[in-house]
């Protein structure tokens, strides 16, 4: 999808300051609304899915500016979010296999029964909030810088978007890990294959910041 948008933007008018303003405003509004919807979700997988909508709206915004920096930021964001979203979906599946439910109200208090899995949840949510040294921070900063150069006014909705992203990430972490454990669920221990799978998601997020030219270009 991101590749298709990148190809389409090449045929759009060369004056995005005037003709593409409605599209950029719509993408900014859509990103904020998607993050607000995340705060109202009770289904774990729906929350993660809606978070993808919010992050991909940033990719659209970067591509609509039609600048090299915007294209670079969009590429980094797509790779970073692909790894982060896949990691959180893996964690949601491990939680579902043990609780047989995706409802956040029922699957609570897992930190007490599966503390190592709670560590993975913490790392995944920190990456979703673009915490250094993950590659997510480079993608978000590139997109924000591009949009601020395009129009300084965009810093206001971008700041709101960042705060909402942090809010629903913490909401997802607290709802699943904190609280009183559900005694009706049989929490069998995590497997080595699950930890290996999560490690293969987290390592690229951390190591790509050392050599971001692999995805951002020279």
Q: How would you describe this structure in keywords?
A:
mainly alpha, 218 residues, elongated
Tally of structural domains: 1
Q: How many β-strands, per DSSP?
A: 0
Strand % is under 5%
Largest sheet descriptor: none
Number of helical segments with 4 or more residues: 11
Q: Please identify the structural class as seen in this structure.
A: mainly alpha
Protein name: NADH-ubiquinone oxidoreductase chain 4
Family: Belongs to the complex I subunit 4 family.
Enzyme class: translocase
Transmembrane segments: 20-40, 47-65, 71-92, 104-127, 147-174, 195-215
Could you write a compact summary of the structure shown?
It contains 11 helices and no strands. It has helices at residues 2-8, 16-19, 21-39, 44-64, 68-99, 110-113, 115-128, 136-150, 155-177, 192-207, 213-216. 39% of the residues are buried.
Q: If you had to describe this structure to a student in words, what would you say it looks like?
A:
By secondary structure, the chain is mainly alpha-helical. Helices cover 73% and strands 0% of the residues. It has one domain (1-9, 17-215). It comes from Blanus cinereus (Mediterranean worm lizard).
What's the helix and strand layout?
Elements: H1 2-8, H2 16-19, H3 21-39, H4 44-64, H5 68-99, H6 110-113, H7 115-128, H8 136-150, H9 155-177, H10 192-207, H11 213-216
Helix pairs in contact: 3-4, 3-9, 4-5, 4-8, 4-9, 5-7, 5-8, 5-10, 7-9, 7-10
């Amino acid at each position: 999808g991101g590749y298709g948008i990148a190809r389409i933007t090449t045929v759009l008018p060369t004056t995005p300051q005037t003709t593409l303003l409605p599209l950029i405003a719509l993408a900014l509004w859509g990103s904020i609304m998607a993050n607000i919807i995340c705060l109202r979700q009770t289904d774990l997988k729906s929350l993660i899915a809606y978070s993808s909508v919010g992050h991909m709206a940033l990719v659209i915004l970067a591509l609509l500016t039609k600048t090299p920096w915007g294209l670079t930021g969009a590429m980094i964001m797509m790779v970073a979010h692909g790894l982060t979203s896949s990691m959180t979906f893996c964690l949601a599946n491990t939680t579902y296999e043990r609780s047989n439910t995706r409802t956040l109200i029922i699957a609570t208090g897992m930190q007490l029964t599966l503390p190592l899995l709670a560590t993975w949840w913490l790392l995944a949510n920190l990456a979703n909030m673009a915490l250094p040294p993950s590659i997510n921070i480079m993608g978000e900063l590139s997109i924000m810088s591009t949009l601020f150069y395009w129009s300084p006014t965009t810093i206001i909705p971008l700041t709101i978007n960042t705060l909402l992203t942090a809010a629903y990430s913490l909401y997802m972490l607290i709802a699943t890990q904190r609280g009183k454990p559900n005694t009706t669920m049989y929490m069998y221990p995590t497997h080595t294959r699950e930890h290996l799978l999560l490690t293969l998601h987290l390592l690229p997020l951390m190591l790509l910041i050392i050599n971001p030219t692999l995805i951002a270009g020279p």
